Amino acid sequence: MKRLDNGKFSRRGFLAGGAVAAAAFLTESRALGAVEVLGLKPEENRALMKFVRDLFPHDRLEDAFYANAIKPLQEDAAKDPAAKRLLTDGIARLNRLAGAAGAKAYADIGDEEERVKVVKQIERSLFFRRVYSTTIVCLYNQPALWPKFGYEGPSSPKGGYLHRGFNDLDWL
């Protein structure tokens, strides 16, 4: 950073130096992320994201909502070897079943109906139950998501629904 004659940094120099530092941090983070992202490898995260999108298919929702939904699973995998093993083994099984369906990996199956056939084969597994039970709560409990479904949020702080929107559903 460039210093002024009085020994202080100029605002332009400070911002430029900050941008360089931020870029270096992001580059380092990406390099670390290429190895493992919160306990899982990038290809495992990709499969997990596709799996959760198949469990709760909303084409209009951005990936960020699904990324928030799988974050607790990723954090558990980073902390607990048993949780990591459950996820990695489940994803490996999805990939094996995808191979039988002619794809390289589960996330590479382009046809949604083919992915659903693969998911049906594991729906009684502990992996399925764990991912489903965790992500259903984490996905739909995001206040930023609620308006996309027409949900105004909890009514109790506003006096309930009886006198505030009980009969205003236009899609029923």
Which terms summarize this structure?
mainly alpha, 0% strand, 172 residues, 58% helix, 2 domains
Summarize the structure.
The chain has 172 residues and is an all-alpha fold. The chain is built from six helices and no strands. It starts with 10 loop residues before the first helix and ends in a 32-residue tail after the last helix.
From the alpha carbons, calculate the radius of gyration and give it in angstroms. Answer: 22 Å
- Tally the helices: 6
SS-derived structural category: mainly alpha
Low-confidence stretches: 23-36
**Describe the biggest sheet?**
none
Number of beta strands: 0
Number of domains: 2
* Overall geometry: globular
Structure description:
- The chain is mainly alpha-helical.
- The protein folds into two domains: 9-38; 39-149, no CATH class.
- Helix content is 58%, strand content 0%.
- It contains six helices and no strands.
- It is globular, with a radius of gyration of 22 Å.
- Residues 23-36 have low confidence and may be disordered.
